[in-house]
């Protein structure tokens, strides 16, 4: 401990106390956890895993562009043709945002859908889990319907996800500044 | 090279923070030991809140029926804990004064004094709280040293009787209510030595008043 204090003294931090540092770290973690709480609350309110998504491609132009932020909400009512929905294909992590092209009821009484991006020339059947016989998507595959969007606000998220080291750099910078501030 | 702290004279929260930090260092200089029990309780509650937030996020992955229920449960727990922390901070500490919220620094001292002659060591344990307040649009900084532990030992209560008693049954051991102009010059430079010497003097007066009367009786 004395060696640590000496080293800190050489760096001009002679009044550094480990217990104060631990308390500050707990306070930073608590502040960050509030962001998690807001995200969890948004999930519960919208009844969807991803209440906010960022458009990564131009397949829905001119309605949505790459970098747009979309707000998603699940609904109990059946989805209609023309609704723009977010859905996931089994085995693929990234959700897709496309418009419902057609829908019909199966013999088992389930509603199934075929989707297509506005800027695509063909429907999404090629994107589905074709190998396992998926020709349509069902309500359980749909995370929710788009009810609002913010243009281009998600470009920063795309940039960070394309360069993951920058993510750690930004978060690390924020943590260091908060740690050494007196607030 | 001596570094002088400088604040904006128009920012009362900055002035109060500067004076509060100097108060803490003065109290430590006077050999008082800080007791961070309350802070550690807050931090323990905050750690539980952090774990609830993480659990709520993890269980929400996939958004299955079971995961949803756990996510709702942990999010509700986090919200309750957040409310508890806010209530503790606002009402527990905010109960001290009516119009403004002073910061309370909880401290405890264990002061050893040697008796003359038979070289016997006696331990006088005085538990103090320090409360500071600098209302908005005011330049008067109030520092109060008071005792609030309600220790039952008869000799402790007997010693406290010579001090002024407040409505909440705490005893004011010492206080001052002075203009901040006493410790800051016109450029906002803080005269730390002057301030800390005044605080130490106040503490020593409180200790002396607490201890000396008993020593005089035993001589």
Structure description:
- The complex is a heterodimer of chains A (183) and B (219).
- By secondary structure, chain A is an alpha+beta fold.
- Chain A is built from four helices and seven strands.
- Chain A has a seven-stranded antiparallel β-sheet with strand order 1-2-7-3-4-5-6.
- The radius of gyration of chain A is 23 Å and the shape is elongated.
- Chain A starts with a helix and ends with a helix.
- The mean pLDDT of chain A is 83.
- Chain B has a six-stranded antiparallel β-sheet with strand order 1-2-3-4-6-5, covered by helices on one side.
- By secondary structure, chain B is of the alpha+beta class.
- Helices cover 48% and strands 21% of the residues of chain B.
- Chain B has two domains: 155 residues, no CATH class; 59 residues.
- Chain B is elongated.
- The termini of chain B are far apart.
- Chain B has five helices and six strands.
- Chains A and B meet through helix 2 of A and helix 2 and helix 3 of B.
């Amino acid at each position: 401990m004395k060696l640590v204090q000496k080293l800190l003294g050489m760096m001009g931090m002679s009044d550094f106390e480990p217990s104060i540092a631990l308390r500050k770290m707990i306070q930073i973690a608590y502040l960050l956890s509030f962001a998690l709480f807001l995200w969890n609350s948004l999930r519960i309110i919208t009844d969807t895993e991803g209440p906010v998504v960022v458009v990564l491609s131009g397949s829905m132009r001119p309605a949505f562009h790459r970098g747009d932020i979309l707000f998603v909400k699940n609904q109990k009512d059946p989805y209609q043709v023309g609704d723009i929905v977010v859905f996931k294909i089994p085995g693929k992590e990234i959700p897709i945002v496309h418009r419902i092209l057609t829908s019909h009821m199966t013999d088992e009484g389930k509603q199934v859908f075929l989707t297509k991006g506005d800027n695509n020339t063909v429907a999404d059947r090629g994107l589905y889990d074709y190998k396992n016989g998926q020709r349509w998507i069902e309500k359980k595959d749909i995370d929710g319907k788009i009810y609002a969007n913010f243009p281009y606000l998600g470009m920063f998220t795309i940039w960070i996800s394309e360069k993951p080291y920058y993510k750690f750099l930004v978060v690390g910078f924020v943590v260091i500044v908060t740690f050494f501030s007196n607030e | 090279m001596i570094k002088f702290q400088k604040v904006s004279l128009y920012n009362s929260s900055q002035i109060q923070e500067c004076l509060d930090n100097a108060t803490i260092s003065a109290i430590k200089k006077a050999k008082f030991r800080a007791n961070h029990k309350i802070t550690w309780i807050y931090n323990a509650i905050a750690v539980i809140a952090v774990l609830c937030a993480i659990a709520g996020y993890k269980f929400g992955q996939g958004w299955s029926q079971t995961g949803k229920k756990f996510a709702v449960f942990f999010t509700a727990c986090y919200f309750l804990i957040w409310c508890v922390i806010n209530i503790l901070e606002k009402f527990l500490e905010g109960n001290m004064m009516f119009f403004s919220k002073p910061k309370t620094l909880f401290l405890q001292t264990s002061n050893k004094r040697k008796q003359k002659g038979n070289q016997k060591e006696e331990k006088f344990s005085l538990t103090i709280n320090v409360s500071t307040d600098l209302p908005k649009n005011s330049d008067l900084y109030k520092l109060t040293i008071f005792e609030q532990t309600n220790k039952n030992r008869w000799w402790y209560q007997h010693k406290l009787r010579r001090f002024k008693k407040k409505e909440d049954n705490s005893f004011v051991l010492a206080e001052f209510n002075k203009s901040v102009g006493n410790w800051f010059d016109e450029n906002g430079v803080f005269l730390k030595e002057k301030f800390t010497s005044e605080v130490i003097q106040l503490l020593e007066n409180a200790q002396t008043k607490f201890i000396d009367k008993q020593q005089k009786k035993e001589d």
